[in-house]
Specification:
19% strand, alpha/beta
Length: 286
Amino acid sequence: MRKILVTGCNGQLGRAINQVYSEDVEKGDVLLINTDVGVEGVEALDITDIETVKAFINEKKPDVIINCAAFTNVNGAEEAEELCYKINAIGPRNLAIAAKHAGAKLIHVSTDYVFDGTNTKPYIEFDTPKPIGAYGRTKYAGEEMVKQFADKFFIIRTAWLYGDGKNFVKTMLSLAETRDEVSVVGDQIGSPTSAMELARCIRALEPTENYGIFHGTCEGYCSWADFTEEIFRLAGKDTRVKHITTEEYPTPAARPAYSVLDNMMLRMTSDFRFKDWKDAIAEYMQ
């Protein structure tokens, strides 16, 4: 039986991982150790405290650690960069140190925000990160910490994630209930990615020794406005989508204009393929 420790188990990805592994858990092949902070019914683990992390890992002796815990408020990160570093960089460092000591694999989830978004073609794993905001800087620092301290690691960069929880899809559907038209940014391009698809990717990589940095997003790409139109189409909503520019919708944090990631490492080293973004959102909406 493989023991898998999941941090941030109550987030969108943490919930998807529990769903994807449910059969393995039922068969007795996998024991999931779910942790989060301030969530009733699951064990608390503060990943920002090195001694707490080391003691917890030492006691549980997991074979694998999947780190879904992160500070993901992109705008909030601009005002709270030190806290963001603590969660997004020191947290992964602590898990990496403890994982190495325990001989465990570490699966760490990162982001498209490590890139500046100025590319004209999809980013591959060998492109050099150049974050433009606090969130991206802290997540890139987290990747570097994992590379520095862990022996056996998978870093998976994902983008535009949605799943069970608060997300863009639910926000748009909620707006459609009361509005005839919504204004959505049409000049930021990326790949909407289902948390279920990312969890399936993690499950495919986890038993292997195919270590390294991977891009993990649904195939194809669109703008936020295009994504919204597809959501409304699937939901049978008549709400119009007005395509606006990034300049017309200013936010505290700069966003990469072009966030398309190429899953090149998965293609070259594994059999796992992500669904097309349209197929994945259709599955989610059902």
